[in-house]
Specification:
The complex is a heterodimer. Chain A contains 9 helices and no strands. By secondary structure, chain A is an all-alpha fold. Chain A folds into 2 domains: 115 residues, no CATH class; 91 residues, no CATH class. In chain A, helix 2 packs antiparallel against helix 6. The longest helix of chain A is centred in the last third of the chain and has 31 residues. By secondary structure, chain B is α/β, with parallel strands linked by helices. Chain B contains 9 helices and 10 strands. In chain B, the strands form 2 sheets. A 6-stranded mixed beta sheet of chain B has the order 6-7-8-3-9-10, sandwiched between helices. Classes of the chains: A mainly alpha, B alpha/beta. Chains A and B meet through helix 7, helix 8 and helix 9 of A and helix 2, helix 3, helix 4 and helix 5 of B.
Chain lengths: 207, 248
């Protein structure tokens, strides 16, 4: 089983300014970038913001390889979106949309590359604590985020494995031979994960 | 050692193909008090069901299972705090991106303070010699390293009983040996199913499970011999399939 193609960069230990920046500030940066993607209308501004974020990413010491690793899985999708938008709305709009998506991915990668997952989960628990009075369990919020971070590469790896076995049987052009096994494997993975969590007593309501 | 009791335990599940439920375990009566208990048997014999009952992952349809007096049905949370479970495939068990994060996840309930959690996780990883692998993606680890990492995540909360469902099945010889040595050094009561008969021979007591029943229960060497006899008898009964093509 391969596990790759993760959309966001994984944590890299370090002592850069961003590593030391409080989680809330980093989260606000990601939130602001997401918001800006709706507001920015000039592709040159998007390019400048993307350049600044890439510069910040490299300053963390996470390296250009990890940055490319975070963006690469999106390349094909971005190409399709870019070409479609170019055809429909013209080059400047297409460039702006593609660049804004990249801004969001790089900003989120900055957060995940400079924050240990447990610190992220603690942040989620803290943020979700006010919902406790409505019956919500903040630990479950955190667990959900953690499992999501882990499941994306698993499913991407499953897709790669299934594609290889379809190729080996000469079925690479058959969408059913690709989609169905990935779907079944993903459901099985979800069941196994649930069982593993139950065995460890995780995700249950607090005593 | 905590006593694990099976009192006339049966497990049956509904099937699509028959109106009758499929019996996975049938009237199992056991008292397990030895430190190392092995469970051997063919695929589909009921080994995994038997192990899952100990942690409450499977509930009996008749009878009851207790661990140190706690019923796995009515006190399942307490039972799971005392019984750690290691699955065959560590990738389905390690739910965090890195080993360290997974070990810390195990400790989230018992250690609310982040610094304390990190200290305990470091100690758990150090105990199995895994600190140098702790920050690698679980996908970058070898099969043996992943299995040890899964074991570290379970041992971090210091369970009294450790249940392992065929932990060496996916491992090569070197990693199997590594796992064997690690298990030999543990203080916990171990209940382990395995197809590795060499590993089974190191147990204090071995159960041979066949068609949902415990067919043999005793010392390791006698149990392995009984299992071999059972397998050979099964082979003689079964007719080998004709794999030759038509016209040959």
């Amino acid at each position: 089983m391969r596990g790759h193609g993760f959309l966001l960069a994984s944590y890299v230990p370090g002592n850069s300014l961003l590593h030391r920046t409080p989680l809330a500030v980093k989260f606000l940066l990601v939130f602001a970038c997401g918001l800006a993607s709706f507001v920015i209308v000039d592709w040159r501004v998007s390019l400048a913001v993307l350049g600044a974020l890439c510069g910040l990413f490299l300053l963390t010491g996470a390296g250009i390889k990890r940055l490319w690793g975070a963006v690469r899985p999106l390349a094909a999708v971005l190409l399709v979106i870019g070409l479609f938008q170019w055809w429909q709305l013209g080059a400047p709009t297409a460039a702006r949309i593609v660049l804004n998506i990249l801004v969001c991915v790089v900003a989120a990668s900055l957060l995940t590359a400079t924050t240990p997952v447990q610190q992220l989960l603690d942040g989620v628990v803290k943020a979700a604590t006010p919902f406790r009075k409505f019956g919500a369990d903040p630990e479950r919020f955190a667990l959900t985020i953690g499992i999501m971070l882990r499941s994306i590469p698993y499913i991407a790896g499953t897709f790669a494995d299934v594609r290889d076995s379809a190729r080996a049987r000469g079925l690479e052009r058959n969408p059913r031979a690709l989609v169905l096994p990935v779907f079944i494997t993903s459901v099985a993975f979800a069941r196994q994960t649930g069982e593993a969590l139950a065995a460890r007593g995780l995700g249950e309501a607090e005593d | 050692m905590p006593a694990i009791l099976f009192d006339q335990v049966s497990v049956a599940v509904p099937t699509d193909t028959s109106p009758e439920p499929k019996v996975l375990l049938d009237g199992v009566d056991l008292r397990l008090e030895e430190q190392r208990v092995g469970v051997i048997g063919a695929n589909g014999s009921g080994k995994s069901t038997l192990l899952r009952l100990v942690n409450g992952l499977v509930q009996p349809t008749a009878g009851k299972v207790t661990v140190d007096g706690d019923d796995t049905a009515s006190a399942v949370r307490k039972v799971r705090r005392n019984v750690g479970f290691v699955f065959t495939d560590p990738l389905s068990q390690l739910v965090m991106p890195t080993g360290r994060e997974d070990v810390e996840l195990s400790l989230r309930r018992s250690a609310k303070n982040g610094a304390e959690r990190r200290r305990l996780a470091e100690a758990a990883l150090d105990r199995l010699g895994l600190v140098h692998l702790a920050d690698q993606s679980v996908y970058e680890l070898s099969g043996g390293e992943r299995q040890l990492m899964a074991l570290a995540a379970v041992l971090a909360v210091d369970p009294a009983v450790l249940v392992l469902d065929e932990p060496s099945t996916l491992l090569d010889l070197r990693n199997r040996e590594l796992l064997r040595r690690t298990l030999a050094g543990l203080d916990q009561q171990i209940i382990m199913s395995t197809h590795d008969l060499e590993l089974a021979l190191e147990m204090d007591r071995v159960l041979v499970v066949e068609k949902g029943r415990v067919m043999f229960d005793g010392a390791a060497a006698a149990a392995v011999a009984a299992y071999r006899t059972l397998c050979m008898a099964g082979l003689e009964e079964a007719q080998a399939p004709d794999l030759r093509g038509p016209g040959r």
